[in-house]
Specification:
Elements: H1 2-54, H2 56-79
Length: 80
């Protein structure tokens, strides 16, 4: 019985040892992808802020129209 437990433990350790490097590679790739996406989102946010600052009247018009459309949709939805 003890031999079975030790052999299972040895097999698990061997399995973990062989796959540990692969998992670390995958985790590292995911981390790099996360950083890339964060940088892309920061850049897009900065671009959007610059656009809004340079075109305030257009941004205000879009916000107003979006509010009116959302209000109309909510009014129709809750009036039923």
């Amino acid at each position: 019985m003890d031999d079975e437990k030790t052999s299972k433990a040895a097999k698990l350790e061997e399995f973990a040892g062989t796959h540990d490097g692969a998992y670390r590679d995958i985790i590292e790739k995911l981390h790099e992808e996360k950083e890339r996406l964060e940088n892309d989102l920061r850049q897009e946010y900065r671009n959007a802020r610059k656009y809004v600052r340079s075109h305030p009247e257009e941004s205000l018009a879009y916000a107003f129209i979006g509010g009116v459309v959302a209000g109309l949709l909510l009014a129709r939805f809750f009036s039923r």
